[in-house]
Structure formats: C-alpha cells, structure tokens
Design goal:
The protein has one helix at about 1-65. It has about 60 residues and is mostly helical.
C-alpha cells in the first residue's frame, strides 16, 4: 500500500513537472541559455584578460631580474 502510494506521488510529481516544463520550460530555457551565453562570453573575456596579464607579468618578472 505504501509503495503504491509512493509510486503514485512520484508519478503525479513527474506529471506536474512535465506539464510545467511544457508550458514554462521553453521560455525559461531560452532565457537561461541566452543568459549563460552572455555571461559565459564575459567570463571568457575576463579569463583571457587575467591569463594574458599573468603571462605578461611572468615573463616580465623572469626577464627583468
């Protein structure tokens, strides 16, 4: 009895989530995707900037002293 109730609860939760994702998921997924694309581009720029900065400082400190 307990397991069947548990299974029905999981089934209804999954059904609710699938319906929720069907109606709202596409919109929020594209919103999240574009946010990740935008934010990831800025993270990549910051990472490249810091990497170039460390590279230049490393060579400057190595060859100046």
């Amino acid at each position: 009895m307990f397991f069947s109730f548990f299974g029905f609860t999981i089934f209804f939760i999954l059904l609710f989530l699938s319906v929720f994702w069907f109606f709202f998921g596409f919109y929020y997924f594209f919103l999240f995707f574009y946010f990740c694309l935008f934010f990831g581009f800025y993270c990549l720029l910051i990472f490249l900037f810091t990497f170039i900065l460390y590279f230049v400082l490393f060579f400057y400190l190595n060859f100046s002293f």
